[in-house]
Amino acid sequence: xxxxxxxxxxxxxxxxxxxxxxxxxxxxxxxxxxxxxxxxxxxxxxxxxxxxxxxxxxxxxxxxxxxxxxxxxxxxxxxxxxxxxxxxxxxxxxxxxxxxxxxxxxxxxxxxxxxxxxxxxxxxxxxxxxxxxxxxxxxxxxxxxxxxxxxxxxxxxxxxxxxxxxxxxxxxxxxxxxxxxxxxxxxxxxxxxxxxxxxxxxxxxxxxxxxxxxxxxxxxxxxxxxxxxxxxxxxxxxxxxxxxxxxxxxxxxxxxxxxxxxxxxxxxxxxxxxxxxxxxxxxxxxxxxxxxxxxxxxxxxxxxxxxxxxxxxxxxxxxxxxxxxxxxxxxxxxxxxxxxxxxxxxxxxxxxxxxxxxxxxxxxxxxxxxxxxxxxxxxxxxxxxxxxxxxxxxxxxxxxxxxxxxxxxxxxxxxxxxxxxxxxxxxxxxxxxxxxxxxxxxxxxxxxxxxxxxxxxxxxxxxxxxxxxxxxxxxxxxxxxxxxxxxxxxxxxxxxxxxxxxxxxxxxxxxxxxxxxxxxxxxxxxxxxxxxxxxxxxxxxxxxxxxxxxxxxxxxxxxxxxxxx
Amino acid sequence: xxxxxxxxxxxxxxxxxxxxxxxxxxxxxxxxxxxxxxxxxxxxxxxxxxxxxxxxxxxxxxxxxxxxxxxxxxxxxxxxxxxxxxxxxxxxxxxxxxxxxxxxxxxxxxxxxxxxxxxxxxxxxxxxxxxxxxxxxxxxxxxxxxxxxxxxxxxxxx
Lengths: 565, 158
Prior knowledge:
heterodimer, A: alpha+beta, seven-stranded mixed sheet, four-stranded mixed sheet, 15 helices, B: alpha+beta, five-stranded mixed sheet, about 15% strand
């Protein structure tokens, strides 16, 4: 029954922004939802007449459980019955959600609950206040005599109560309150409680639709043979044999979209040859039948030894002090230390290897001359970047690019990059403006077997080198609660996520130069590369470990809601 | 183009495939729309595509569609009519899934195990499940859920 509610709820949602999950195989699994979607109470919550609370997830669910935890936070403030809460998945809506008040669509940095905590509480509280005001109107009493509890609003003096479902339509007519009234934390009954994932019933029955599960009428399938070497180019290809495979419809170069790109987030698309067919299997066989010559370019002989040599050299460069923590003059303070510790760390390239291989379904619409609009289905950690890049590629305004946000089988930062969506849009356009599902096969992820260890492509996550120089100062001026040790990081490769959990006293710096792979910010290893020297320093200072403080929300606000994959 | 008759989740389907060597996985997903069975590796190494053919757990990504004609095929969608197989209930109760992408394959492997050994030892569980990968690392909860479902089976039998 719960599962059916989920499916039903998903199809109920209004404004055409929501994906409907059909229980039967073979149907079109993504549909525009019916207009009858319950009453919207703000941008995240909607309540149907039968009392179902629909929580709109605008962040990317990729296994962190945020579909559930964000709903929990909002519904705590709403005073909703958790069993009546359902999740709806959304389209990207930059105008509505891509702002500080709503927290944006970007999902990364292991920070969603922390950064959305206030946003979700506020959304729930405002909706609750609207329900209370609606009840007050019905009863002709003051709103401050009306209290929401357990999915209803009660007026204690007269022992009257109205269910959320009964109030929702009237509440939705009211203006969004100017003042938010948050619950006291001691009154929490939902936040902090372990809850089974709301998507679990759909997952265990095989009915949760990931990006890779999208099916559209007339959809074609594409795979791309990509240059095995980063920054290589396509020399020539022969498609004759590929086109003989039954089902293969188009073979064309993707060279026009290859090369470095940036929309606030640098990435590259490798040159390749796309094979489009009426089935995945035909496309894959077609790709095997291609004859391709590559110009392997400047990285043709690049290997692990090259990388490590380069990384070690790079790590000796001094980064600019950021002044982010501790003493902004820390580097200058290095002159007055009594002892210096050196540590060096080099990490190899690593793969994200998302369990769900990269994929994107795209439908570019238009005629031979012009492109009218574009629709995208995929799991993305940053649909705003997809919209920006595809807008540039197709010359479309953001409003003409519709991105359906699907859950994914793992992101790990890889799905922050928009490259695979750009590939899919290009393939759809070149394949006669047809809907195309573009799939990376598993072997596409590590790349060509011959060069698996040489990868510098979008799938190489964390390659990182750091040199740490830690200074222990002459005089002990700090208290025990403020363990000594400080650092400054260079902007080059500096990543604020790495700095976040540490409270460091005003002491000597360590310095480093670092270069994550061209395609990844190397967040995890940057963290490690920064944490290890701190622990080393702490040991020398006689304390067991560096002192960790909880993240402060103030600090996160100070750093904005920017990228942190 | 070959016409092939498949029996999937108790229903008979006539499907057309250009290449009879097409792996069953792609026919299930892209022709029959049964997308609960997932593509993970294509070479029988990850287990995400596990289904039952004649009651045995097989990797549908390496089984040619023409080789299973006439054999009963069960996918995650057909494991139970309402998604309430003891394993599915145990998976929810233990909150096993994270991203969930591998879990259909995990459940199908576990279901084949329980069908063969209703009271599996820990070694049995290890042996049956060791070739299903989970990138999220949900293995401890998977084991717990299998034990729970097996215990429930014992309870109802006594």
